[in-house]
Amino acid sequence: MTRAHAAGRQIILGAHFPGVNNTTVWSDPASGSHIAFESFRRFAQSAERGFFDFLFLAEGLRLREQRGVIHDLDVVGRPDTLPVLSGLAAVTAHLGLAGTINATYNEPYEVARQFATLDHLSAGRAAWNVVTTSDAFTGENFRRAGYLPHDQRYSRAQEFLDVARLFWDSWPDPRIEPGRVSYTGTQFDVAGYPGVPRPPQGHPVIFQAGDSAAGRDFAARNADAVFTRHGTPEAGRAFYADVKSRAQAHGRDPENLKVLPGVTFVIGDTDEDARERAAAIRAQQVSGQTAILLLEHVWNRDLSGYDPDGPLPDIEPDLSETTVFQGRARQIDDRAAEAARLRALAREKNLTLRQTVIETQSRQTFVGSPETVAEALIDAVGTRVCDGFILVPHITPAGLEPFVERVVPLLQERGALRTEYPANATLRDLLGLPYPGEAPA
């Protein structure tokens, strides 16, 4: 018996409709539209059939570019989050609906009204993933192009959320007149009345996905859940302990901040079968062109003249601040060191350029038979790597179905996942979160 099962810890499950990224295998015949509502419906209903807690949508306010042209992974488009979630509210009954909306390029009243509306339409299933950007490239699509200094991202986000909460709280009962909101700060000067009564959850569930020190502190102070990339046991436990301690320092119960890494999975009849499937999927995810584009993030140079099936570039990375890519966060702190590491790996294993990228940038988090994957998920939650997972399949919209059909029953047998939804449960109820204004238990 695992510690997770012994402790009775339930696994939180979210389903990430992946959108445009290098996880999706576009060439697979099972890969469907990322725009048609039918894809969203099928994906959401699969998650609900598997007793998941919520569906998660990311956001892209501008198509990414590399060397001045649209990145291939973005050309399918990015549908707007809230209309999709509103449509899904009508074809699901229990599943939480989490959407990413930027606090830099929107206004508090507008977003507060939109999420209050979604919460009413869905009977208390709305969640808002609060993100920020100081990216002038993204800002060119808005009248505030590039106006926000990097160090003000979270100060604006904090005021944004504070004002939104004022609007949610100012009309507690539709039988009485709404209260007036008045707020003056460094980012906002707002005065008016809410357009929608208080949401059924009080406030929608708040997600946050930033990993910087400022992002972690913002989450510890404000968020109900953190969407993190730290999925390995060692990195996961360190992140888990850090944000939980930060939450406690803000006077919160750490158990009311859920840590949910985004993870990928491959399921096979046996562990060996799953490993073979995983290797084939990684090869499909990284075409020769994609390998070049991803490696340009390390070299910060135009590498289009290099052969993906040849050796790594023989030139050194450009270490200047100017980058060849736009609209994507920089994730490499030391380009020279990373290039040296990749060269050493390529020499050691006799890898081509493309093979090196596959080896280092394409990994599935959980690979194995249904039994192996189920036990690994249970153990991660039981040993405080996280509180649950946001699953990102490599096929849309059908990619979640093998997990639902083969892993979910095992989680239920082991007491790690519900076998039915509670009647009339909101997303806060599903996640075990308090309602705003509730006294601590």
From TrEMBL:
The keyword Cell division does not apply. Gene3D superfamilies: Luciferase-like domain. It holds the Pfam family Bac_luciferase. GO terms for molecular function: monooxygenase activity; oxidoreductase activity, acting on paired donors, with incorporation or reduction of molecular oxygen. FMN binds at T100, H150, Y154, S212. The keyword Signal does not apply. Residues 29-383 form the Luciferase-like domain. Keywords: Flavoprotein, FMN, Monooxygenase, Oxidoreductase. CDD domains: Nitrilotriacetate_monoxgenase. It comes from the Bacteria. Belongs to the NtaA/SnaA/DszA monooxygenase family. This is Nitrilotriacetate monooxygenase component A.
